[in-house]
Write a structure and sequence with these properties.
The chain is mainly α. It has ten helices and no strands. The protein has two domains: 13-94; 100-181, Arc Repressor Mutant, subunit A. This is Sigma-70 family RNA polymerase sigma factor.
Length: 196
């Protein structure tokens, strides 16, 4: 395979040889999911370099175990679970909490017009703190769709679930967030493009 990504400087010869012999399906998977995995890891760790290292390790682990992964009922769901476990282990090793609340709120503030930045930051901190309290699947859907701004079909693909499952988790998460934040929403209206 000629489209092998750059290897870290310390990669030994066996790792280099392994990456050259991986099936094209792995490289397609890598191309499709690497950026999203890295974006998620950055939100959780708050450190782009640590996120890059972690996602590289996850991808190499998936590569080494590619044949076994392809035998899973839902390879996408298994790969997503491996990423989340790796992030949780890294957070435990650092003895820290996910950085989502601060990072996402600051990103949102940067996107808002200058005079509204502080108001956006203040409201964003409350919103992202409420997101952090969601059940795991609802949390994943909200982070992937609204924080990382992925369309629902991509969220379903990344999580290895059906689009209807994503919609269901999104609906339940929005209802819980509305209750937690004291907002009124129309529970029968769940437009895919609607913001939180």
């Amino acid at each position: 395979m000629s489209d092998v990504p750059d290897m870290p400087p310390g990669a030994d010869r066996a790792v280099r040889e392994l990456t050259r012999r991986l099936p094209t399906a792995f490289w397609a998977f890598h191309e499709q999911y690497y950026r999203t995995y890295k974006g998620y890891a950055e939100l959780m760790l708050g450190d782009p370099h640590a996120a890059s290292r972690l996602v590289h390790r996850v991808m190499m682990d998936l590569a080494v175990n590619w044949n076994r992964l392809m035998q899973e009922e839902s390879p996408g769901a298994t790969a997503w679970a491996i990423l989340k476990i790796s992030v949780a282990q890294e957070l435990d090793a650092r003895d820290s909490e996910p950085a989502l609340t601060e990072i996402a709120a600051f990103r949102r503030a940067l996107l808002d017009p200058y005079r509204e930045k502080f108001a956006a930051l203040e409201s964003g901190l409350g919103l992202y703190a409420a997101i952090a309290r969601l059940p795991e699947r609802q949390y994943d859907v909200i982070v992937l769709q609204y924080v990382l701004q992925l369309p629902p079909h991509r969220v379903a693909s990344i999580m290895g679930v059906r689009l209807t499952t994503v919609r269901s988790h999104r609906r339940m998460a929005r209802a819980k967030l509305a209750r937690d934040l004291g907002l009124v929403i129309n529970p029968d209206h769940d437009d895919e493009d609607e913001s939180l």
